[in-house]
Design brief:
It contains eleven helices and 19 strands. With about 375 residues, the chain is an alpha/beta fold. A nine-stranded mixed sheet has the order 16-15-14-13-7-12-11-8-19. A hairpin with a 7-residue loop joins strand 15 and strand 16. Helix 5 packs antiparallel against helix 10 and helix 6 runs parallel beside helix 8. InterPro entries: Gfo/Idh/MocA-like_OxRdtase_N, Gfo/Idh/MocA_oxidrdct_glycsds, GFO_IDH_MocA-like_dom, NAD(P)-bd_dom_sf. This is Gfo/Idh/MocA family oxidoreductase. Keywords: Oxidoreductase.
Length: about 375
């Protein structure tokens, strides 16, 4: 097998820049081409990163492309991933992987038939902070995790995103857009979910864009924007997950997990780094010592400071896993179970009933310091 698998990208919007700029950090992959239904967008990204701009159909036929990254809007994730698999190529999708269990199972069947891999974001759970929390939990120092809280709340994307429309349509909203980071991290830390319950509301039926170039334009809201959910895990833990785009300010921590022997405070799962704190029984809260995990090292300006951003780690892990014949961490099974949880939350919010999960999955393998370093390209 080639030293590096050729990668093509479908969808040259906002998120594509992160993939193109961070891919060179990793071994096992080589960005070669990009495509978009808007050819001008593809040409602009191709020029920026010295790639080939191709039509979608040409990219699907390109013999130099082994994996295609699906960065389209959530509503067409399934159709695009299906086309990629049918073209005989591995696919790695942005989150959410698909919008229904049926779509995910169909893609799984198509992939298995052709011996292809499916991977999906988010890969932030591979970050140094979240793997440090994983190591703490796996060590048994907290005992069994019995409960916890997660809060991801703000006031929507219309204040900064140039085209925020899709965030407020079915397939997005805070559960399906930001929820994947939180739900996926919970699964890797605790295990699979058994059932969910939720309340869902839509306080504002339309939003006013305040970001350029469309400031002042009103957009409709067709999906719930405040959802309070309860998740019961297979291990018996019960976690509260509150997501909202109707909150101007709050004082909740992103994630707190309560064990029989202590508590761990986990930083925002939307990011790779951050400070992990914990308690040993009734002793005062203290920071876990910093460890030399490469995906916790700040490498990018964000706001007023530096942050760790290693997006594309999951894609690289999948490419290397294909070569090594092992399971990749950002797997289809993990992504589909997360979709099951999130769509279950939305169904419960509509029906007022508990919703049992239709799928399950194994926790992805931990990514310790040595394994993380093995994903990085050697510095020249």
């Amino acid at each position: 097998m080639a030293d590096k698998l050729g990668v093509g990208v479908i969808g040259c919007g906002n998120i594509s820049k992160a993939y193109f700029s961070l891919a060179p950090l990793f071994r096992g992959i080589k960005m070669r081409a990009c495509a978009d239904i808007n050819m001008e967008a593809a040409k602009a990204r191709a020029k920026e990163f010295k790639l080939r701009a191709e039509t979608v159909s040409d990219l699907l036929r390109d013999d130099e492309i082994d994996i295609i990254v699906n960065l389209t809007i959530p509503a067409v994730h399934y159709e695009v991933s299906k086309a990629v698999l049918d073209a005989g190529k591995h696919v790695y999708s942005e989150k959410p992987f698909v919008l229904s269990i049926e779509e995910g199972l169909d893609l799984k069947k198509r992939a298995e038939k052709k011996g292809l891999r499916i991977g999906s974001a988010p890969d932030t759970f591979l970050g140094g902070a979240h793997q440090l929390a994983r190591e703490l939990i796996d060590s048994g120092k907290l005992g069994r995790i019995t409960s916890g809280t997660c809060h991801v709340m703000g006031h929507g994307m219309e204040h900064w995103h140039p085209n925020p429309d899709f965030f407020f349509q079915p397939g997005a909203g805070p559960v399906l857009d930001i929820g994947p980071y939180y739900v996926t991290n919970l699964i890797q830390l605790i295990g699979p979910v058994k059932q969910v319950a939720a309340f869902a509301t839509t306080p504002a039926k339309e939003r006013t864009i305040s970001s350029k170039p469309r400031a002042g334009e009103k957009i409709p809201v067709n999906t719930p924007t405040t959802i309070h959910a309860l998740l019961e895990f297979a291990n018996g833990a019960v976690i509260t997950l509150n997501t909202s785009w109707d909150v101007w300010s709050h004082g909740h921590a992103p994630m707190e997990l309560y064990g029989e022997l202590g508590t761990v405070f986990v930083p925002d799962p939307n990011f790779f780094g951050g400070e992990v704190r914990f308690t040993d029984s009734a002793k005062p809260v203290k920071k876990l010592p910093k460890w030399n995990h490469p995906f916790g090292v700040p490498n990018e300006m964000h706001g007023h400071g530096m942050m760790a951003n290693y997006r594309t780690a999951g894609l690289a892990d999948m490419a290397i896993a294909i070569a090594e014949g092992r399971q990749h961490r950002c797997s289809m099974e993990l992504a589909l179970h997360a979709v099951d949880v999130m769509t279950g939350i939305l169904r419960s919010g509509e029906s007022g009933k508990y919703v049992a999960m239709q799928t399950t999955c194994e926790r992805p393998a931990a990514l310790g310091v040595k394994d993380a370093k093995a994903l990085l390209a050697k510095k020249k």
